[in-house]
Structures are given as C-alpha cells and as structure tokens.
C-alpha cells in the first residue's frame, strides 16, 4: 500500500513541478462548467463598459496562457467568441501604444500608468509609497472615473 501512495505522491509532485497539474485542474473545471452550462439560458446584454472590461481581462488571461479561465469568462459573461480588435480597444480607451507596449496586454499598461501617476514622492527611489486614495476600491473607482472622463483629456501613453 505504501508503494502506491508513494507513486501517487511522485506523480503529483512531477505534475506540479512541470506546471501540468494546474492546467489539468483548470481544464476539468472548464469541462464541468461546460457540461453544467445551460445554453438555453439567455445572458443579459453586455454594456459597452463590461464588453471592454471583459476583453481586457480575456487578453490578460490569454497572454498568461490561462486559456480555460478565458473560455469560462467568455461562456459565463456572454462575451463574443471572437476577441475584439486591439486597435479598437486602444481607440476606445484613448491609448497610444509604443513598440514595447504592444507586446503585453493593455491591462498591464493601464495599471502601470495609473500606479506611476498616483505615487507620492518619498525621497527614496527604491520604495515609493502609493497614494492610497480615499479607501478600499479607490483604484477601481478612479479608473472608472478616468475612463468616463477621457473626452478632451490627453491620451494615456503606455510605456514599458
């Protein structure tokens, strides 16, 4: 009995070290979700904001090779199966990209730009403190406001 248990542990450790175990678990979750997903259930129509936010998340998931998570997002949210054009997203979010930024998801650039613009100078370059704003959720609230107030403002330039 001990040898079976040891074999099981060795296989589990090997799969974890290769990163395969997480992929297998994600695929099982995605397949279970697909089996349980009721295709006849009507999804609510996505607002333009949710469509863009979901697409930013999908681009991030796909970039990080989280394909099963991406497929569940698309299925649950009602996001179109075909990804939105990156150029369209850039125009909608008023983002100008450079050569380096076009190789990473737009979400990375948005977060990076936001954090750079909202840091307080501390005199120590190595560990700048962030402006925490009025409380929890301040980042998302500010981002929502920034996206809503983009008309007439300068474009966000994403640089890495």
Automatic annotation (TrEMBL):
<dbReference type="Pfam" id="PF09398">
    <property type="entry name" value="FOP_dimer"/>
</dbReference>
<dbReference type="InterPro" id="IPR018993">
    <property type="entry name" value="FOP_dimerisation-dom_N"/>
</dbReference>
<dbReference type="InterPro" id="IPR006594">
    <property type="entry name" value="LisH"/>
</dbReference>
<dbReference type="GO" id="GO:0034451">
    <property type="term" value="C:centriolar satellite"/>
</dbReference>
<protein>
    <recommendedName>
        <fullName>Centrosomal protein 20</fullName>
    </recommendedName>
</protein>
<feature type="domain" description="FGFR1 oncogene partner (FOP) N-terminal dimerisation">
    <location>
        <begin position="43"/>
        <end position="112"/>
    </location>
</feature>
<comment type="function">
    <text>Involved in the biogenesis of cilia. Required for the recruitment of PLK1 to centrosomes and S phase progression.</text>
</comment>
<keyword id="KW-0970">Cilium biogenesis/degradation</keyword>
<dbReference type="GO" id="GO:0060271">
    <property type="term" value="P:cilium assembly"/>
</dbReference>
<dbReference type="GO" id="GO:0034453">
    <property type="term" value="P:microtubule anchoring"/>
</dbReference>
<keyword id="KW-0206">Cytoskeleton</keyword>
<dbReference type="GO" id="GO:0036064">
    <property type="term" value="C:ciliary basal body"/>
</dbReference>
<comment type="similarity">
    <text>Belongs to the CEP43 family.</text>
</comment>
<keyword id="KW-0966">Cell projection</keyword>
<keyword id="KW-0963">Cytoplasm</keyword>
<dbReference type="GO" id="GO:0031514">
    <property type="term" value="C:motile cilium"/>
</dbReference>
């Amino acid at each position: 009995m001990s040898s079976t248990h040891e074999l099981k542990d060795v296989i589990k450790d090997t799969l974890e070290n290769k990163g395969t175990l997480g992929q297998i678990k994600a695929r099982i979750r995605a397949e279970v979700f697909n089996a349980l997903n009721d295709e006849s259930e009507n999804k609510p129509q996505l607002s333009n904001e949710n469509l863009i936010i979901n697409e930013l998340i999908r681009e991030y998931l796909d970039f990080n090779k989280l394909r099963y998570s991406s497929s569940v997002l698309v299925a649950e949210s009602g996001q179109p199966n075909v990804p939105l054009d990156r150029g369209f997203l850039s125009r909608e979010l008023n983002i100008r990209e450079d050569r380096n930024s076009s190789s990473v998801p737009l979400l990375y650039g948005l977060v990076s730009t936001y954090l750079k613009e909202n840091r307080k100078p501390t005199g120590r370059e190595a560990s700048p403190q962030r402006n925490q704003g009025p409380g929890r959720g301040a980042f998302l609230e500010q981002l929502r406001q920034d996206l809503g107030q983009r008309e007439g403002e300068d474009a966000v330039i994403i640089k890495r």
